[in-house]
Every structure is written in C-alpha cells, then in structure tokens.
C-alpha cells in the first residue's frame, strides 16, 4: 500500500483560487459598421443596375438586328420553298405522263379528259395537297406528320 500512495497526488484547486464565472455580456467585434454595409450594398445595387441596363441594351440591339436579318432573308426562303414545290409538281407531271403513256385518251392533269377544277381558269396554279405532292415518292420517304397535320 505504501507504493501506491507514493505515486498518487491529490487534484487541488489553484493556490490563488478559481477565476470568476463570467455572466455579463461580451459584445461582438464588428468588422464593418452599419453605415459601411449600407454604403456597400447601395454601391453594388447601383453598379448592378448599370450593368443590367447596358446588357439589356445590347441584347435588345442584337434582337432587332436578328429580326431585321430574318425579315430580309424571308422572301428568299419563301422563293426557294416555292421553287422546290414547282420543281416537284413538274416532276410529278412528268412521272404521270410517263406512267400513263400507254393508256389511250389520257390527258395529264385531268381526270379522264375532264378538268379537275371547273371553276378556275386553265392557266391558274392550284397548290397540290400533300397526297398529290408525294404521289410518286416511296412511302418511306413521305413526311406523314405533315400530311396528317394538313388533314386533321
């Protein structure tokens, strides 16, 4: 028992005693004051509005330019579409002529010699519907979505 008692030391309070328990409020250290924070936020708001306004003007200017370009190129696109339509109608006319060459009395563009449209002049162009337009194409090549969209 004497060996264990020698290595043991009692844990006692410090000689001058424990320090006081702190109960009063400790104020936080402020990095920026209220006026500085308000000034910084106001500065950021003004700069943000300026940047937003300049970008808005740029986007508006580019959209006007793109709209002008679209308006400028639209007649050419419509003309190309019409040109393609007329080329396909001409091909259909030639294919019908080739297909019905052995049929006696068949006149291309009529139904057994009778004009299809009786109320319009002979030289007027009637835009064909999708079935007439794709009459001599392979069924796999036909755009069925556009055909069905015209019907329904």
Automatic annotation (TrEMBL):
UniProt keyword list: Electron transport, Membrane, Mitochondrion, Mitochondrion inner membrane, Respiratory chain, Transmembrane, Transmembrane helix, Transport
Q: Where in the cell is it found?
A: Mitochondrion inner membrane
Pfam families annotated for this entry?
A: GRIM-19
Transmembrane regions: 37-53
Specify the protein's topology with respect to the membrane: Single-pass membrane protein
- InterPro entries linked to this entry: GRIM-19 (IPR009346)
Q: What residue ranges carry the coiled-coil annotation?
A: none
Its function, per the record, reads:
Accessory subunit of the mitochondrial membrane respiratory chain NADH dehydrogenase (Complex I), that is believed not to be involved in catalysis. Complex I functions in the transfer of electrons from NADH to the respiratory chain. The immediate electron acceptor for the enzyme is believed to be ubiquinone. Involved in the interferon/all-trans-retinoic acid (IFN/RA) induced cell death. This apoptotic activity is inhibited by interaction with viral IRF1. Prevents the transactivation of STAT3 target genes. Complex I functions in the transfer of electrons from NADH to the respiratory chain. Accessory subunit of the mitochondrial membrane respiratory chain NADH dehydrogenase (Complex I), that is believed not to be involved in catalysis.
Family label:
Belongs to the complex I NDUFA13 subunit family.
Subunit composition and interactions = Complex I is composed of 45 different subunits. Interacts with CARD15, but not with CARD4. Interacts with STAT3, but not with STAT1, STAT2 and STAT5A. Interacts with OLFM4.
Q: What is this protein called?
A: NADH dehydrogenase [ubiquinone] 1 alpha subcomplex subunit 13
**What high-level taxonomic lineage is stated for the organism?**
Eukaryota, Metazoa, Ecdysozoa, Arthropoda, Hexapoda
Q: State the encoding gene.
A: LOC107064161
